[in-house]
Write a structure and sequence with these properties.
Elements lengths: L1 E4 L6 E4 L4 E6 L2 H7 L3 E7 L3 E4 L2 E4 L5 E6 L5 E6 L4 E5 L13 E3 L16 E2 L1
Parallel strand pairs: 3-10, 10-11
Antiparallel strand pairs: 1-2, 2-5, 3-4, 4-9, 6-7, 7-8, 8-9
């Protein structure tokens, strides 16, 4: 079981599904919304229980981003044409039990850090 919440606790989420695609996203949108790199994993949308009032931002023609309207925590990413939903690993309460698999959108990464962990990188 994975449980998580926003900073103020107004939004909680949980899943019994095994999270997949554990990644660090370096895209410009994640940088602007999170202030840096966004760590996430995804599960089928119907396997994630969300409580609270998520504010959804239609970030592009491809996906929307979910956050708490009270504290601003960036919690979810959902492609318009998929049945998967990504959740922020930093919002998980307690240990995740997960291991980072890859870095994505590395072509957009900031110039102020290096990726040197040897994991796969996708431009």
């Amino acid at each position: 079981m994975v449980n998580g919440s926003c900073l103020c606790g107004a939004i909680t989420f949980s899943t019994n599904a095994t999270p997949k695609a554990v990644s660090m996203c370096h895209c410009s949108q994640c940088q602007k919304q999170s202030g840096g790199i966004w760590a996430s994993a995804h599960v089928p949308e119907d396997k994630l229980t969300i409580s609270g009032d998520v504010t959804w931002f239609d970030a592009s023609g491809v996906a929307k981003r979910g956050f708490c309207g009270t504290c601003g925590s960036f919690l979810f990413w959902k492609a318009h044409d998929e049945d998967l939903i990504s959740f922020a690993l930093g919002a998980v309460d307690g240990p995740t039990g997960l291991t980072l698999e890859k870095h994505i959108f590395t072509a957009d990464k900031g110039d102020y850090y290096q990726i040197s962990d040897g994991l796969p990188q996708q431009d």
